[in-house]
Amino acid sequence: MILYKGKIYPDSMQNELIDRLEGDIAATLSNQSPITAETVIAAGDKLYRKAAEGRYDNIALPLLKDFGIEYDRYQTMAKAFSAEMLRYKCEIELGKDWRELPPLYCGTTRRIVPLGVLFHIAAGNVDGLPAFSVAEGLLAGNINVLKLPSGDSGMSVKLLSDLIAEEPSLADYIYVFDVPSTELATLKRLAHLADGVVVWGGDIAQRAARDMCDINTKIIPWGHKLSFAYATISASDEQLRALACHICSTEQLLCSSCQGIYLDTDSSEELKKFARRFFDIFREENNRLGKANIAMRGRNAVELYTKILEGAGDDVLTADGVSVEVCKGTELQLSKTHRNVWIKALPRDCVVKTLKPNKGYLQTCGLLCLAEDKQTLADMLIRAGVVRITGGDMSRTAFGEAHDGVYPLREYTRIAEID
């Protein structure tokens, strides 16, 4: 499915439309009246109100069920399109004077302008994220070309089509193509038209994007990240319950999802005792919220059973489709996902040395400790490279927060200076 100048076309017209794209982009960039952030904000707010009224529920509800996302959380996420939050985003990321920057001391005037054209290579782990990526590009005034992820549900095209219906002037700033990742020649054509390529994905996707881009094209990577919890022995049951709820609700599939827990100890006995404590709470939350997908439970059960047969039985706690594995070593790694976590000992004086080699991959740490320890441990984790410190709910939404430690709107704009 292709969205081109506000109209839906079949994939069979892909090459014909891409042939027209460079000329249409040049015509839009030559326009003396480009779109403004207020235009985008007004259109986005109308979409938010539709979502608040339940008018996207027929699309959203099946996806929420698949991803185990509660309806209230969906409504909170939809609020990111509201006028209030979009204006707040602009002010946080670009500054309160972003519409009109004060001149330099010498009288040189300055203004924030778009990069020009963004090519978004979207990932498919969260439906609707490709549309929000385009919305961010629009806020910064850019023309946006979106490559849909494989298996896209159609939500992104629906949202962007509705956005154009609310504000027809946006039609010249949104182009959506369903190009398979194997069509490298086509992707290179689209990347060649862009001033910046926005890449959502892991190392392979990042490397492929760099290979397809011209040397003078800016790469804006939003790569896969690793997130974890760091706990002290004094962490409360309430904190552990919040973490268990987070693990169950996200199935550990988001960049901000907890993969495992580091414990501030060098005692193997304390580690095992803490693992049992967390496991009991984990099981309770799992049963309260409903168990994970049966196929994933089966896959993990086979892997865990194999590990037990190999002699790790005392170090694997498993029941009801959840597991806690007490591990040796301190390596930061992915979990088996779908409600299976590792626990490792990591004394606080070893935090920086252990985590720093993972530079660029670290995102969220759920810090579970007494209030008097929080600032010291948070500072240590930040020095190690962590960019986001939360409590047990590691995937909570906070409007205005950075993405992986960076403000997207700053990446999608540049400063123009005029003497």
Strand and helix map with partners:
Elements (H helix, E strand, L loop, with lengths): L1 E3 L2 E3 L4 H16 L7 H16 L4 H11 L3 H8 L4 H12 L14 E6 L2 E5 L7 H11 L3 E5 L7 H12 L7 E4 L6 H9 L3 E6 L1 H10 L5 E6 L2 E6 L5 H14 L7 E6 L4 H22 L4 H19 L3 E4 L2 E5 L13 E6 L5 H5 L6 E7 L2 H14 L3 E3 L17 H4 L1 E6 L1
Parallel strand pairs: 4-5, 4-7, 5-6, 7-8, 9-10, 9-14, 10-13, 12-13, 14-15
Antiparallel strand pairs: 1-2, 1-6, 3-16, 11-12
Helix pairs in contact: 2-5, 2-7, 6-7, 10-11
Would you give an account of this structure?
It is a single chain. The protein is an alpha/beta fold. It has 2 domains: 2-224 and 404-418, Aldehyde Dehydrogenase, Chain A, domain 1; 226-390, Aldehyde Dehydrogenase, Chain A, domain 2 (3-Layer(aba) Sandwich). It has 15 helices and 16 strands. A 7-stranded mixed β-sheet has the order 2-1-6-5-4-7-8, with helices on both faces. A hairpin with a 2-residue loop joins strand 1 and strand 2 (7-9). Helix 2 crosses helix 5 (83-94). The longest helix is centred in the middle third of the chain and has 22 residues, at 268-289.
Main structural class: alpha/beta
CATH class of the largest domain: Alpha Beta
Given the structure, what is the number of helices?
15
Major sheet summary line? 7 strands, mixed
Radius of gyration: 23 Å
Q: Could you give me the name of the CATH homologous superfamily of the largest domain?
A: Aldehyde Dehydrogenase, Chain A, domain 1
Low-confidence parts lasting 5 or more residues at pLDDT below 50? none
- Tell me the distance between the termini: 46 Å
Which percent band covers the strand fraction? 15-25%
Name the average pLDDT.
Answer: 91
How many domain modules?
2
Query: In what order do the strands lie side by side in the largest sheet?
Result: 2-1-6-5-4-7-8
CATH architecture title of the largest domain: 3-Layer(aba) Sandwich
